[in-house]
Design goal:
By secondary structure, this protein is an alpha+beta fold. The chain contains three helices and six strands. The protein has a three-stranded antiparallel β-sheet. The protein has a three-stranded antiparallel β-sheet with strand order 4-5-6.
C-alpha cells in the first residue's frame, strides 16, 4: 500500500521541532513559499501544490464527492498566518483559507511536489 500524501502516516509527528523552518518567505509573485531550515535545507513550494494538498474538511469532502478540482493553475497566496509553533494557515486568492498546514506536512508536500527545489540554494 502506498502512502497517501493527503493523509499523514501514522508515525508522522504533528510537531517536530526539526521540521520548523528558520525562515518563511512569500515570493513577490505570491505563487511560491520559500522555506529554509537551520540545517541549510531549502525548499520552494508552489501555491498550486499547497492548494491541491489542502486537508481541510471542505476539501476532504469535495474529494470524497469527486468534485475537487484537479488543478488550480492560477493559485496564489493571499495570506499566511502562524498557528502556534507547528503550522501555517494559508489563505489562497480564490478565497479558500480553511487549511492548516503543519511544518511536517509542508515538507512532505515539497518533497512530493514536482515544483520543489529541495536542497537547492535558491
Amino acid at each position: 500500500m502506498t502512502a497517501d500524501p493527503i493523509r499523514p502516516a501514522r508515525d508522522e509527528a504533528i510537531f517536530d521541532q526539526a521540521a520548523t523552518p528558520e525562515e518563511v518567505v512569500l515570493a513577490a509573485d505570491r505563487r511560491h513559499l520559500r522555506l529554509s531550515w537551520r540545517s541549510g535545507d531549502k525548499m520552494t513550494l508552489g501555491a498550486e501544490d499547497m492548494r491541491l494538498a489542502c486537508r481541510c474538511a471542505w476539501c476532504s469532502r469535495a474529494r470524497i464527492e469527486g468534485t475537487f478540482e484537479a488543478h488550480f493553475e492560477d493559485a496564489s497566496i493571499a495570506s499566511i498566518e502562524p498557528i502556534g509553533d507547528y503550522a501555517l494557515n494559508i489563505g489562497f486568492a480564490d478565497g479558500h483559507a480553511r487549511g492548516i498546514f503543519p511544518w511536517t506536512y509542508l515538507r512532505t508536500i515539497g518533497v512530493l511536489s514536482k515544483d520543489s527545489n529541495a536542497g537547492s540554494s535558491e
